[in-house]
């Protein structure tokens, strides 16, 4: 009986281009998947190394057959007048904006599902019968509503959350940088990302004294210093603006490796500025950093772990663990409601407890960066009746932001003698 191979996929989904990579266990590296993989038959991964694997994030429906096309083929079909082009897919999903095509209404999620289905089919040329083991989709800014719709589209393909994860460009960058030679991240590591949305700088800061080591991420928005529009203005020197902005965030920082990514760096205008910034530093320019980082993340999540001694904290992850003190198995423990490293908009935990004694809940809050633990008591004042072993309390914790957790406590009752009142108390916790 054939043993299924692991199919590890990194998927960078942007409004202009999408990039896909698969992990090759032969080369021990992610390799690009692109339009050249549309042929039939199984071929070896890595045969297209170095080719541009950017796929335009567009769809087209042919007017005569209602067949769906994607990427360059979709653009060519629409240019010939044979079909209707659908652009800005990610923006449509973000705004939940459907379209009407050939007298049929299509939701934003259904359009994204079609694009996923078409583009992921490229992988079949390498893995014709093996299902995807783990898929990580990275997007520039993963707002909760956008992420939910991406998961919905993937679910329609049979890819549930046990096999798929949506993360930010910052999260993919963390995995990419820490998968490189250790000499490249002995000190802090920086990334400049320049695209139509603007210029952002991400600096990885590693606490090597903690166990596990903690790799945190500091993001600085530099769009006020330089934006995509200045590249087309003859009276403005974009290289000068960029170098000034970069030197501002790098001043007195021990950054020895720099990465430069994004469509904004194309055209050669920033080459000299980049050379100047990389004096005394290692520098790398490329457009596939995020798909490769997503592929490394998928590999880690599949169980092939390389970064087990490092806790990665991107700008979507909480840095504080929250526990509630309970008596369990003959001893008091801090039952975890929130773990440092969880993505804030996906964090959710529920627990039922039987209160004893004072009407109060005791929380422990542990900052993963400093290692310090603080305790916080939440009084359940004004609750109807006596709580001491006469009811069950339902505790549910989720996050409203990266810095705030919301805990809801509900009176569930205790059998027929003490029916639940349904009373709720809501607490906001700074994390």
Describe the protein.
The N and C termini lie far apart (50 Å). Strands 1, 2, 3, 4, 10 and 11 form a six-stranded mixed beta sheet that branches. The protein contains eight helices and 26 strands. The protein folds into three domains: 8-162, ATPase, nucleotide binding domain (Nucleotidyltransferase, domain 5, 2-Layer Sandwich); 179-313, Nucleotidyltransferase, domain 5; 320-430, Substrate Binding Domain Of DNAk, Chain A, domain 1 (Sandwich). Helix 2 runs antiparallel to helix 3 (108-120), helix 2 packs across helix 4 and helix 5 crosses helix 8. By secondary structure, the protein is an alpha+beta fold. Helices cover 19% and strands 36% of the residues. Strand 5 (59-62) and strand 6 (68-70) form a beta hairpin.
């Amino acid at each position: 009986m054939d043993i299924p191979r692991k199919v590890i996929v990194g998927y960078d989904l942007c409004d202009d281009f999408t990039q896909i990579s698969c992990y090759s266990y032969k080369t021990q590296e992610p390799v690009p998947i692109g339009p050249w993989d549309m042929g039939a038959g199984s071929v070896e991964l890595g045969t297209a190394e170095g080719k541009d694997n950017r796929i335009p994030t567009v769809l087209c429906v042919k007017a005569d057959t209602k067949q769906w096309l994607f990427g360059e083929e979709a653009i060519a079909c629409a240019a010939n007048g044979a079909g209707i082009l659908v652009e800005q897919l990610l923006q449509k999903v973000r705004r939940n904006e459907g379209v009407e095509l050939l007298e049929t209404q299509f939701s934003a999620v259904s359009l994204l599902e079609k694009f996923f289905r078409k583009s992921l089919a490229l992988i079949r040329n390498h893995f014709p019968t093996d299902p995807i083991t783990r898929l990580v989709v990275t997007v520039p800014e993963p707002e909760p509503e956008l992420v939910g719709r991406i998961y919905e589209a993937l679910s329609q393909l049979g890819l549930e959350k046990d096999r798929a994860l949506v993360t930010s460009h910052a999260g993919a960058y963390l995995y990419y940088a820490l998968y490189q030679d250790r000499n490249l991240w002995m000190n802090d590591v920086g990334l400049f990302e320049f695209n139509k949305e603007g210029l952002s700088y991400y600096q990885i800061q590693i606490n090597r004294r903690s166990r596990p080591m903690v790799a945190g991420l500091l993001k600085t928005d530099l769009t006020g210093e330089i934006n995509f529009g200045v590249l087309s203005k003859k009276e403005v020197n974009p290289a000068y603006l960029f170098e000034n902005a970069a030197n501002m965030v790098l001043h007195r920082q021990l950054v020895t490796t720099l990465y430069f990514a994004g469509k904004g760096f194309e055209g050669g205008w920033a080459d000299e500025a980049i050379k100047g910034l990389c004096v005394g530093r290692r520098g790398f320019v490329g457009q596939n950093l995020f798909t490769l980082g997503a592929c490394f993340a998928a590999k880690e999540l599949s169980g092939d772990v390389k970064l087990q001694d490092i806790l990665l904290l991107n700008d979507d992850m909480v840095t504080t663990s929250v526990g509630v003190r309970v008596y369990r198995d003959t001893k008091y423990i801090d039952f975890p409601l929130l773990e440092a490293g969880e993505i804030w908009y996906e964090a959710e935990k529920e627990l039922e407890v039987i209160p004893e004694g004072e009407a109060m809940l005791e929380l422990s809050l542990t900052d993963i960066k400093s290692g310090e633990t603080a305790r916080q008591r939440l009084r359940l004042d004004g609750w109807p009746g006596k709580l001491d072993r006469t009811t069950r309390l339902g505790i549910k914790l989720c996050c409203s932001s990266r810095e705030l957790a919301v805990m809801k406590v509900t009176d569930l009752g205790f059998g027929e003698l003490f029916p639940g009142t349904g009373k709720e108390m809501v607490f906001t916790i700074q994390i």
